[in-house]
Each structure stands twice: as structure tokens, then as C-alpha cells.
Specification:
This protein is α/β, with parallel strands linked by helices. The protein contains 33 helices and 39 strands. The chain has 7 domains: about 180 residues, Methylesterase CheB, C-terminal domain (Rossmann fold, 3-Layer(aba) Sandwich); about 55 residues, no CATH class; about 200 residues, Rossmann fold, CATH 3.40.50; about 100 residues, 2-Layer Sandwich (Beta-Lactamase), CATH 3.30.450; about 80 residues, Beta-Lactamase (2-Layer Sandwich); about 180 residues, PAS domain (Beta-Lactamase); about 130 residues, Heat Shock Protein 90.
């Protein structure tokens, strides 16, 4: 078998079923995993006149996609395909092909047809499954899949609603596994993973003892000696069965076979799998016509038939091919040239099928149309071989190497049989062929076969062909037929008996042809003359020269012993045969000699053929010595009385003879009449058999129709269930939606409505059936009926907006009501409440107007920086009209040092939110640079992904100029304050301080003068103490006004002194100063010092903190001052509790005055944190 188009990556599983198959389909598919990695093709018996809903039914529970096959679909893994009704299906190169079923008989067995094509297309990748059903469809297809190396499954009887179909395949031995549908699904997955085919690998080769035991079991059960077949082939077959049964030990499998007759039958079928076809290797049949048939006809004796033997005929295709080929060759001479074709096989089951001559419809792929038309008859299930061809072929169950062969053959066609035999059996088979052929007969072998060591017995007719001719008769070999040989023909039985049975020893090497010579010489020397007759005394074979005893009778030719034996001899023969038949023993009868003639001895030997009820007899004639005329002693001469008595007896004998002859003739007449009557009965029986076959055909048709009705009924029941479920789904769906929906018929009468329509419009149960104009809808739509009729007529949907009597807005959707087949049979009205949308549209319109007329620039851009929208404010700000700006790249509005890309904007904003305002620069059409404050809003699409960016920009150029001027003025005020502080500090220190110090020294001098010691000393001491305090306070005020360390030593020492002198009850202060620049501008140092000074004062007075931290560092050219405490925080208004917050404003002003920033974060739980950032090398100020 040629395998083509195999799938290299996945198996194709064909599943056939009939009556009861729907449930089996569901159970099998439900047990499959979500991704089995295989394709599934379902081939049920479907009623051709009904629409199938099988795909919809199975798709509800299947985890794999289910679809109905369309011609040209290529099978793919993890898909389920279903054959449509009234179609036949094949597969070629992985593509499903649909064919019209045509005449019903042409595709009578759709499962067989598809399974067989699957086997041819996919080979070992094919998997066949037969589920519930009646009949035998699928059995032939399972055989093809198994022969191609695929795996087959059948549903077991316990789960199948109808077991006939799977049972037929299992009984024929074509099912590897018989399981439930769920079990089949699990086992199929093991096929994909290799657990079935690959399972043979870990199974050890059967040991020789176990192998011999298994072969002995086969021999005892079937009578076939497999011991001399090719060992490797047998091992593979046994290993395959072991793998399928999951038996790893050969001894265990041997024990299984001893008790499991069914497994023994399956193993026997596996070993003898028959694969054949009509006209296989067509070139060989053309060679027969070209030079073999002419050679055989040239040597044929006139009137002798051509005798052809086809051993290993399998199901008969080879034998019938030879018959058809020969008829084609003979042409008009076919009637004048008789021929017989003997076809044998060791398997009785395939012989019976061959004898029937019935074949499936797929054989049309192997035969030319003219041959199919000429040599076959159409049947319901396929084709039948025409009687003219079938009558020329004789089929018999026969063991080639054990049973005696046919003889005197002109042609033996043994192709591809010897390859399965061991060397010794091949040699024996070739010897048998040599013995069976006529001198000059022809032997045809297969392409891979040869004659081995028997080249001396055969000559090759063509160097390029496996066609051989038997050499001269002197070289003929008498083969050994074995001790259990049986006779298929009387002539073979006689030959075996006459030669004394089989040889018991092997011929000596130097005399290979001695047996043949003995077979020729011994019968001629010692065997008497005679004939072989059957129970009706018909002569089957003549032995030697019988012309002296038997002669043809005048008239119609006859080979019956009654017509050829003389009267007296006939009487003796009839009596002796009767005795031999009754006693089953040899009978010898001596006939008295006549004067001058020899006597005659007749011996009757009964022959019993095993397996047959017919009787055969060997009739031998042997002459006794003749009576001597004068040599005998003289006898007493009879008297006259004795002579008269002798004459009377002779007359009586003559009369008796005549009477007996009349009786015999009457009996023969009666026998002839009985024979005619029997022939009439046989003819009537054949007619009755033909009528019975017609009845069987009709029964099969009725059964098939019944199965189709069962399947249709199952589908109808399941469809009703689906419809009920769909109706429940629709009811629940309508009840769950909040949209008022009203369904109308073609006449615009209400058919159905949702509960929301009932509550919204006051509908009731009696609304159904009423015209839509009369149900009281709260809309003023005089054209509604016209619009609905237009929808029903055109099939096109309409949509309009309407307000109800309460002023609420609705969107009215009018859609056609379509049936499953696409016909419009009404309309559907849906009422969508759009009142809020309408209000939103008004609001949006107002906002759009506001945006359009705003003095701020509103710009919408895409993610590629192209301007999409441009309002009037943008036109006034930048000078571009909307026509000029839309489509322009937004980069044209940005100076080189102020470009902000899309990615920057995306980082600045969250989806759907507006980012904090950002200051930047913009460029107008006339080249002016504007200071702009802008906000960004990210616009997203329906999927939540960024789509557009909306930017609102405000011109703050004048505001920035004012702010710059304010900063300059503030810096001047601060500078003036600091100058004044320095002057006051110097005046206090140098003027008042020095005067007070002089007064102090004078008082100290007076207190130490003895002349003044007695006059009011305590008052002087009090004044001195007050002066000390005044001097200390003046020093402190001077230091605060202008710290000397800040001016003389720098910022870091000044901060350390400030923190060291900080005193506040219960507050622990920590100061960290990093690496600072060598020179810090005096105004920067003063601003940072004053911020720190104010923060420490505020903390001491208001925070109630226990920890205070001050740090100063430089990061990226920026001086960073951090002051934090763990106090009670600052109120949202910017002041601590009980404080006015003026210090915070002062700190902010000082930071911003030197170009820095001031940040304050505070909460009651975490305290307050102040962060000041100022550039370490600020730009020149005073001209901003």
C-alpha cells in the first residue's frame, strides 16, 4: 500500500458512529484535554434530507472548536471536523474532500470510505474509532488503518447503545482496543505521546523459549506452523501485541495466550494481516499479456484448460485480476479456451471473503472504469465480481508448505509471499511450485523475491523480470508434504497413497532427483490398471490401460461406470462397490475365466478424504492366468437330464438377467429424473437465495433508514433541548437588561417586550398582539409606523432621537427582526435613555464656547507633536491663525533653550489629570519670546492609553517683569536694612557701649576708693550690675544685627556659634555641615544665616519639639539648607499655633531675594521641615 501525504507532526483521528452515537461523541470529546495536539474528524450516519445541528450540539460541551467540513479544509491539530449531511468525504494530502453522495449505493458505507482514504493518506498517523451503531460500516476501514500501521479503537458493549458496528470490527480482529468512549479518549492521548507505538521499545524481545511456546500455541489452535516463518517479523508482531496489552514480559504474555482465546485470535490476525489490491504492480500483468500467455497457449494441448494457481490469495483481488487479465487477452477466444484459477490462503476467514467476491466502493480507485463496468456488478455496499469471472476461480483454505499442491499447472503467481517465510520454508515452497508446474510452466514472484538455490530447477525468462520457467521433466522434485497432508483432489489423494506417503528422510546430496524417478518407474512397473470413481460411479481418473475392461457406450458420451462396463462386470462392480461403501473395507471379487481366456480379479478400495463427506473408490482390474484347453483333467460328461437342467437354469438366468437389466434401466431412468428434479430444486434454491438476498438488501436499506431516523430523532431531541435552553437564556437576558425593548412582527403587532419596557411605558400582558400604534408609547412620532415598515421591507436599521411627553430624551433604534435563515419577519425597537448625554452635550457646548473665547491659549496636540486644535486665545498670543497652526509642529513655538518634548509632558501629567502649572518660554510668529505659565492634561483613548495632550498656556511676560522689579526692590530694601543694622550695631558698640563701659569702670574705681567706701556702697553695686546687663544686651543686639563671625570668619563658623549659643529648654539640637565652597557670596551667606536664625527662634518659642536638626550641604551647584523638628507642626495658614507666621514669610522673602526657593512641609505627627535651595554661584541680580 502506498502511503502519501502523511502528517509529520500530528495524528488524524477518524471517529465513526451511527445510532446512539451522539451520546458517545459527547462522552469522548468531553474526556479530551484542551490541547490534545491531534485533529478529529467525525463521520456519523446523517439523514440526507434533514439539516444537521450536530456541530452546534457538540460545541456546547467540547473544549475544542467544532466546525462542519467544507471541501478543501486542511486538517489542523486541536480542531474537530464533522461531515455534513448527504455528503461523502475523503482525505488526500491532509485535505478533506467532499463529494456528492449521488446514488445512495455509491457511498453506502461513508465510514469505510473515509477510514480507508485516511489509512492511505496518513499511514501510521491514522487513528480509527468506531462508536455505537448498527450494521458493519467501518469494519473494512478499520482493517485498512490497522494494515497501514495505525491504531484502532472500538466502543465496548457495556457503554454502546447499539453494539453491532463496533462488535463487527472487534470480532474481525481489526480493533486494537475495545473501551468506553472516555477510555478511548485517554488511550488516544497515549497514542499522541507515543505510549502505544513507542511502547514497543522498552519491551524486551521475547526469549526463545517463550517465542517457541507462543508459536506452538498458534500451531495447536490454527494448524499453521509458524516456527519456520521469518523470526524477525514474528517478533515484531508479538512485541506489538505485548505493547498494546501493556505486558512487558514474554513469559507473562505466553501465559495470557494460554487462557485468553480472544487474544490468541488477535495475534493470529496480526501475523496474517492481508494487504492486497486489484492489478497490483500493473507492469506484471502487462508482461503476462505480452509474452507469458502466448507462450502458455502455444504449449497447451487442444481442449486442455489453462491451470493457474495463486497461493496466498488473501481476499481474492490477485486471483480475480488474473481472471480478468486473461479474459481481456483472449478476447473473442475466451469461450473456446477454458481456464481454471486456483486461489488458496492459510486463513479461512479471508478465503470466505474472496469466495463471496464482494468489495467496497473504494475499489474504483484501483480499477479502470471500463474494467469496473465489464467485470463487476453494482451492489448496495459496493461491487460484486461478475459470475462469469467468479466461476473461473476456485478458492480453498490451504497451507502452502503443509498441504499437497495442485498439479499440472501452467502458471503459478506467488508475489510477496515468500518474503514472510524463513529460508527453509522458501526452499520448500519453491520445490512445491516446481513439482506442481507442467514442464515449461511459468512461475511469477514478487520484486523482492528470488528462486534462491534452485537455479538448476528454474530458468529466468527475462533478466529484468521475476518470471521463471520450469526446466526439463527429468529435473522434477518430489516435495515433502508433511505428516498431516490432506487431499484436495482425488487425483492428489491417489498419488499420495500410491507413493506410500511422505518421505521420512532427506535425499542424499548426490541424488536430488531420485524420488521423482521412482515416482515415474514404480507405478508403471507394479500398479494395476483401474479407475477412481465417486459415490455416483462417475469416473474421475483412469489409471493405466483399461480398454480391455471398459468401453464407451454408443450415443451420448458418458464417463459413468454404468455406461462403460459390460453387463456381467457391471453387476459385479455394483455389488462390490455397495459392499465396500457399507463396510468401509476393501472388497475383492474374482470373475471366473472363460475357455481360452484369463480370469479377472476386481478390487475395490474405499478412499476417505478428511473434511469431506463424499465417497471415493479405487477400482483395480487384475487378470488371472487363462484356463488351459487340454491340459486340464478330463471331466465326467454330463447326462442329458443334467444338460436339460443346465439349459433351464441358463434360460432362467437369462430371464433374470433381462429382468435385472430392466430394473437397472428403470432405476437409472428414475435416477435421471431425480437428478433433473434435484437440478430444478437447486435452480429454485438459487432463485430463493436471490430473493433472500434482495430481502436482505431491503432489510439493510430499512435498517440504514431506521438508523438515520434514530440519529435525526436524537438530533431533534437535543435540538429541542438546545432551543429550550436558548429560550430560557433569552428570557433571562431580556429580564436582566435595563433597556426598554419591544419586538414586533411583520404586521407591526407586538410579539414580546422586556420588563424595563413594561415599567417604562406601562405595558401589560394584553399588549402582546396589539398594533404598535395602540400601545400608548409616550412619544409624538406620527411617522413611526412608516419608518418601521421601511425597516421590515429593506432590512436596514434606522436610528432617531425623540423626547417623551415629560421632556426626557431617548435614542430610538429600529432594527430588522431576522430569522436564522436571514429572512426579515419583523422589527425590534430599543429605547436608549440619552437625557444625561444631551445635558452633557449642552455643558460641553458651553465649555467649548468658553475655551474658544478664552484669552488663554488652549492647544491640543498628538503624541507626534502635531497641533490638532487652536483657539482664539492662542491666535492672539502667538499670531498664528487656526488654519496656519493646525498640523504645525508645536516645536516652532519653543525657543531652543526651552523645548519640552512629548515624553517630558507625559512624565509631568497623570492619565486624565491636569498637572501643576509650569513656567517656560514661548516664541511668537514675529519672533518675540514670551514668558508662559502652562498646564498639561493627558487625554486617553478607550483602552486607557495616551492619545492626545491638552495644554493651556497663559502669557505672564508682564507679570515676570513686575516680579523681577519687586525682587530688585526687595533686595535693595534688604541691603539697606543690613547696612542700617551694621551702622546701628557699630553705633551701639562704639558709642553707647563705650560710654556705658566708661561709666562701669568709673563706678568700679569708686567702689574701690577708700575715701568713698563708706558712702552708699550698695547703690553703686546695683548700678554696676545694671550696667553689666546693659552692656551684655547691647553686645547681643549688635551681634544679632550683624554677627561678627559671619563677616569675619564666614557662614559655617557663624552657624556653629549660633547653634552652640541656642538655648531652649528640652530641645536637643544637631548640626551637620558638609563640604562648602571656599567663598560664598555675602548676601547668600547672610540670607541662609537669617533663615536659620529665624527658624531656631520659631522652634524655641512655638514648636514644643524635643529634637531639632540643621544641615547645610552642596549638591549640583546648589546650596541646600534643611531644618527639621519633631514638634506640633505649622497650621495650613503658614503659622504655628499661637504665632503670627511673620517669620515664615520673612524666611521665604530672604530665600527668593537671592534667587532661591523655600519649601515648608508640616504635619502634627511628623513636625516641620524647612528646605531652602539657593544657587552657590547666583546670576547677577538687580536688572531682572
Amino acid at each position: 500500500m502506498k502511503i502519501s501525504g502523511k502528517s509529520k507532526s500530528f495524528h488524524v483521528v477518524a471517529i465513526g458512529a451511527s445510532a446512539g452515537g451522539l451520546k458517545a461523541f459527547e462522552e469522548l470529546l468531553a474526556a479530551l484535554p484542551p490541547r490534545p495536539g491531534m485533529a478529529f474528524v467525525l463521520v456519523p450516519h446523517l439523514a440526507p434530507r434533514y439539516e444537521s445541528h450536530l456541530s452546534e450540539i457538540l460545541s456546547r460541551d467540547s473544549r475544542l472548536p467544532v466546525r462542519e467540513v467544507r471541501s478543501g479544509d486542511k486538517v489542523r491539530p486541536d480542531q474537530i471536523y464533522i461531515i455534513p449531511p448527504d455528503r461523502a468525504m475523503l482525505i488526500k494530502k491532509g485535505v478533506l474532500q467532499l463529494h456528492s453522495s449521488g446514488r445512495k449505493s455509491e457511498w453506502r458505507n461513508p465510514i469505510d470510505s473515509f477510514f480507508t482514504s485516511l489509512a492511505a493518506d496518513q499511514g501510521k498517523k491514522a487513528v480509527g474509532v468506531l462508536l455505537s451503531g448498527e450494521g458493519t460500516d467501518g469494519t473494512e476501514g478499520m482493517r485498512a488503518i490497522k494494515a497501514a500501521g495505525g491504531v484502532t479503537f472500538a466502543q465496548n458493549g457495556g457503554t454502546a447503545a447499539h453494539f453491532s458496528m463496533p462488535r463487527s470490527a472487534a470480532a474481525a480482529g481489526w480493533a486494537d482496543f475495545v473501551l468506553s468512549p472516555a477510555g478511548i479518549a485517554k488511550k488516544i492521548i497515549s497514542v499522541r505521546t507515543g505510549a502505544v507505538h513507542k511502547a514497543a521499545a522498552p519491551y524486551a524481545k521475547p526469549a526463545e523459549d517463550a517465542m517457541s511456546g507462543i508459536l506452538e500455541l498458534l500451531r495447536a489452535a490454527k494448524g499453521v506452523e509458524f516456527g519456520l516463518y521469518k523470526r524477525s517479523t514474528l517478533r515484531r508482531r508479538i512485541q506489538r501485541r505485548m505493547a498494546l496489552k501493556k505486558i512487558r514480559d514474554a513469559e507473562a504474555y505466553f501465559r495470557r495466550l494460554k487462557t485468553d482465546r480472544g487474544e490468541l485470535e488477535l495475534l493470529y490476525s496480526d501475523v496474517l494481516i492481508s494487504v492486497t489490491s486489484f492489478f497490483r504492480e500493473p507492469e506484471s500483468f502487462r508482461d503476462l499479456k505480452r509474452f507469458i500467455y502466448p507462450r502458455l497457449l502455444k504449449k497447451r494441448a487442444h481442449g486442455a484448460p489453462l491451470r493457474i494457481w495463486v497461493p496466498g490469495c488473501s481476499t481474492g483481488e490477485e486471483a480475480y485480476s488474473h481472471a480478468m487479465n486473461l479474459v481481456e487477452f483472449l478476447g473473442e477466444r475466451a469461450a473456446a479456451v477454458p481456464f481454471q484459477i486456483f486461489a488458496t490462503d492459510v486463513n479461512p476467514a479471508v478465503v470466505e471473503r474472496a469466495r463471496a467476491g464482494l468489495y467496497p466502493a473504494r475499489i474504483k480507485n484501483d480499477l479502470a472504469p471500463e474494467r469496473l463496468k465489464r467485470f463487476f456488478l453494482r451492489t448496495e455496499s459496493g461491487y460484486s465480481v461478475a459470475p462469469a469471472i467468479r466461476e473461473r476461480c476456485i478458492f480453498a483454505a490451504k497451507d502452502l508448505v503443509k498441504d499437497p499442491p495442485f498439479i499440472n499447472l501452467d502458471l503459478i503467481s506467488c508475489r510477496n509471499l515468500l518474503i514472510y517465510l524463513g529460508p527453509s520454508l522458501q526452499e520448500k515452497a519453491l520445490k512445491i511450485f516446481h513439482y506442481a508446474l507442467k514442464p515449461g510452466g511459468v512461475l511469477m514472484l514478487g520484486r523482492s523475491e528470488s528462486i534462491g538455490g534452485l537455479s538448476g530447477s528454474f530458468s529466468q525468462l527475462d533478466a529484468g523480470k521475476k518470471v521463471f520457467s520450469e526446466r526439463a521433466p527429468g529435473s522434477r522434485i518430489l516435495p515433502d508434504f508433511g505428516p498431516t497432508g490432506r487431499f484436495l483432489e482425488p487425483e492428489t489423494a491417489f498419488k499420495t497413497a500410491a507413493y506410500g506417503g511422505p518421505e521420512r528422510g532427506k535425499p542424499a546430496p548426490d541424488a536430488p532427483y531420485l524420488q521423482e524417478e521412482l515416482a515415474r518407474v514404480l507405478p508403471a512397473r507394479y500398479l494395476p490398471n483401474g479407475v477412481i470413481v465417486n459415490g455416483e460411479m462417475e469416473i474421475l481418473r483412469f489409471l493405466g490401460d483399461t480398454s480391455r475392461y471398459l468401453r464407451p457406450a454408443p450415443g451420448k458420451p458418458s464417463l459413468n461406470l454404468r455406461s462403460m462396463a459390460p453387463g456381467e462386470l457391471l453387476l459385479e462392480l455394483r455389488a462390490a462397490i455397495h459392499v465396500a461403501k457399507r463396510s468401509a473395507c476393501a472388497v475383492r471379487k474374482d470373475l471366473p475365466p472363460s475357455p481360452g481366456a484369463a480370469g479377472l480379479r476386481v478390487e475395490i478400495l474405499p478412499i476417505k478424504v478428511p473434511g469431506q463427506d463424499k465417497n471415493y473408490f479405487l477400482v483395480l482390474f487384475e487378470e488371472a492366468p487363462p484356463a488351459a484347453p487340454g491340459g486340464a483333467p478330463r471331466e465326467k460328461k454330463p447326462t442329458a437330464k443334467e444338460n436339460r437342467r443346465v439349459i433351464e437354469l441358463k434360460e432362467d438366468l437369462a430371464v433374470s438377467g433381462e429382468n435385472l437389466k430392466a430394473i437397472i434401466e428403470e432405476q437409472e431412468t428414475t435416477n435421471a429424473r431425480l437428478k433433473d428434479t434435484n437440478e430444478e430444486l437447486l435452480s429454485s434454491n438459487e432463485e430463493l437465495q436471490s430473493v433472500n438476498e434482495e430481502f436482505e438488501t431491503a432489510k439493510e436499506e430499512l435498517q440504514s433508514a431506521n438508523e438515520e431516523l434514530v440519529v435525526a430523532n436524537e438530533e431533534a431531541v437535543r435540538t429541542n433541548q438546545v432551543l429550550s435552553l436558548s429560550n430560557a437564556d433569552l428570557t433571562n437576558l431580556l429580564a436582566s437588561i435595563d433597556i426598554p425593548v419591544i419586538m414586533l412582527g411583520a404586521d407591526l403587532a407586538v410579539r414580546r417586550f422586556t420588563p424595563s419596557a413594561e415599567s417604562a411605558f406601562g405595558l401589560a400582558a394584553d399588549t402582546v398582539g396589539r398594533d404598535v400604534r395602540n400601545i400608548g408609547l409616550p412619544f409624538r412620532l406620527p411617522e413611526l409606523r412608516k419608518l418601521l415598515l421601511g425597516v421590515v421591507k429593506s432590512g436596514a436599521a434606522r436610528e432617531l432621537e425623540a423626547r417623551d411627553t415629560g421632556g426626557r430624551w431617548y435614542s430610538l433604534l429600529l432594527r430588522p427582526y431576522r430569522t436564522e435563515k436571514g429572512r426579515t419577519e419583523g422589527a425590534v425597537m430599543a429605547f436608549l435613555d440619552i437625557h444625561n448625554r444631551k445635558l452633557s452635550e449642552k455643558t460641553l457646548l458651553r465649555l467649548a464656547t468658553l475655551v474658544r473665547d478664552s484669552n488663554d491659549a488652549v492647544i491640543i496636540r498628538d503624541l507626534k507633536d502635531r497641533i490638532l486644535a487652536w483657539n482664539k486665545g492662542a491666535q492672539l498670543m502667538y499670531g498664528y491663525t487656526a488654519g496656519e497652526a493646525i498640523g504645525m509642529n508645536v516645536g516652532r513655538l519653543m525657543p531652543e533653550n526651552a523645548k519640552i518634548g512629548t515624553r517630558d509632558l507625559l512624565r509631568l501629567s497623570e492619565r486624565g489629570r491636569t498637572a501643576a502649572p509650569i513656567a517656560t518660554k514661548r516664541l511668537t510668529k514675529d519672533g518675540r519670546v514670551l514668558d508662559v505659565l502652562f498646564t498639561v492634561t493627558l487625554l486617553c483613548d478607550d483602552k486607557g492609553e495616551p492619545a492626545e495632550i491638552a495644554v493651556t498656556e497663559r502669557d505672564i511676560t508682564e507679570q515676570r517683569k513686575a516680579e523681577g522689579e519687586m525682587r530688585r526692590l526687595h533686595a535693595s530694601v534688604v541691603s539697606a536694612q543690613e547696612t542700617e543694622r551694621k551702622r546701628i550695631a557699630r553705633d551701639l558698640h562704639d558709642g553707647v557701649g563705650q560710654i556705658l563701659s566708661g561709666v562701669k569702670f568709673r563706678l568700679e574705681a569708686l567702689s574701690g576708693d577708700p575715701a568713698a567706701r563708706g558712702a552708699a556702697p550698695r547703690g553703686i553695686l546695683d548700678v554696676s550690675s545694671s550696667l553689666n546687663k546693659a552692656i551684655a544686651e547691647i553686645r547681643r543686639v549688635s551681634e544679632n544685627l550683624m554677627p561678627s563671625e559671619l563677616e569675619n570668619l564666614g557662614l559655617a563658623p557663624a552657624l556653629r556659634t549660633l547653634c552652640r549659643d541656642f538655648k531652649a529648654g528640652g530641645i536637643r539640637l544637631e548640626l551637620r555641615i558638609g563640604q562648602l565652597p571656599e567663598k560664598i557670596a555675602p548676601d547668600l551667606a547672610l540670607a541662609l544665616f537669617r533663615v536659620t536664625q529665624e527658624a531656631l527662634n520659631n522652634t524655641a518659642k512655638h514648636s514644643r519639639a524635643t529634637r531639632l536638626s540643621v544641615s547645610l550641604s552642596v549638591k549640583g551647584g546648589v546650596l541646600l539648607l534643611n531644618i527639621s523638628d519633631n514638634g506640633r507642626g505649622v497650621s495650613p495658614g503658614g503659622s504655628r499655633p499661637s504665632g503670627r507666621g511673620l517669620g515664615l514669610h520673612s524666611m521665604r522673602e530672604r530665600a527668593e531675594a537671592v534667587g532661591g526657593s523655600f519649601e515648608l512641609t508640616s504635619s502634627p505627627k511628623t513636625g516641620t521641615r524647612i528646605t531652602v535651595r539657593v544657587p552657590a554661584d547666583p546670576p547677577a541680580r538687580g536688572h531682572e
